[in-house]
Design a protein that fits this description.
By secondary structure, the chain is an alpha+beta fold. The chain contains three helices and ten strands. The protein has helices spanning about 5-40, 45-50, 115-125; strands at about 55-60, 65-70, 75-80, 85-90, 95, 130-135, 140-150, 150-155, 160-165, 170-175. The protein has a ten-stranded antiparallel sheet with strand order 5-1-2-3-4-10-6-7-8-9. The chain is rod-shaped and about 105 Å long. It starts with a helix and ends with a strand.
Length: about 180
Amino acid sequence: MSWEDELFALFDDLEGQAGALAAAERGAEHADRSRAEYQTVTLASRLMASVGTELTLTVTGVGALTGTVDRVASDWLLVSAGQHDWVISADAVMTVERASVRSIPEVAWSPLARLGLGAALRRIAEAGERCLLHLRDGSRHEGTLRRIGVDFCELVEGDDRRMILVPFGALAAAQSRAEG
């Protein structure tokens, strides 16, 4: 091999090494950027991408619940499970199985998805529907929601129509109750 061929072979080798180093650097930069961007993904945005999907949620005070996600907001979600609908406080969710790998950022959500837990509970109260409130400590109270405050709800319970105030911080979920 002539010195000229050896020189070109050396240049080809160096060029290949430089290309490999550049590709590795680009890959590491892309991975760093992906990790940094993923740090902004919220659980609510993953659940929003899972609307219409059957998931299994573990909820504080309730346990495992399998159902279809019908609606998601930043601090609550609506799940249909069998004959019941569940309004679940998002911060009572401990685990989620079978969620979408995608996410939908909050800027792309409907304005209705920005309504708080109180708005969902007001809808139940306005309909006069019976419900079962599941508290985070595992206790339950069955009755009819009467009024909803900023950070609590009023439940009328039992034949004696006893009124119970339940702070949102204690509420894990509200489950619909079929009459009859």
